[in-house]
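Work Package 3 committed the consortium to producing structural models of liganded targets before the mid-term review. Because experimental data for this complex are still outstanding, the team generated a predictive model from sequence and the ligand definition alone, so that downstream docking and mutagenesis planning could proceed in parallel. The input record is reproduced below exactly as it was submitted to the modelling pipeline, together with the SMILES string for zinc ion.
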Amino acid sequence: MNPEQEQPSVRRIVLPSGRSIEVVRFGERSHSARGLHICPECNSDLVQPVGWSEAPDDCWNLALNCPNCDWYAEGVYTGDQVRELEDRLDEGLADMLRDLQRLTQANMADQIDRFVSALSADHILPEDF
Ligand SMILES: [Zn+2]
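The resulting structure, written out as tokens with the ligand in place, is given here.
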């Protein structure tokens, strides 16, 4: 394997807004051992695509952003890499929905507890309804 192909070139570009971004160009479809969801700066696994467009040969142009350290990169990635990222995002979404469900249940349990104690303390009167 040619090691030069594994080394992406990074260019820092300052946008008109003043924000600087890093543009990462990978060589011939190098396949990163780390998933795209892992941030190369802070190792967070929360990297998300913030922009994408189709590229030739089952590849995608992706703009990736890490919400943890605000790392940003654009690059061309293979369909396999993008599908793996999609799977990760689906897992993340499922995790988040499970958390939300637990939170909702906890809130409801808390409300019911307070309602029951207010009811038994006669703080709830017919005119409350
Ligand atoms: Zn990061």
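Reviewers should note the following from the model. The chain has two helices and five strands. These observations will guide the Year 2 experiments.
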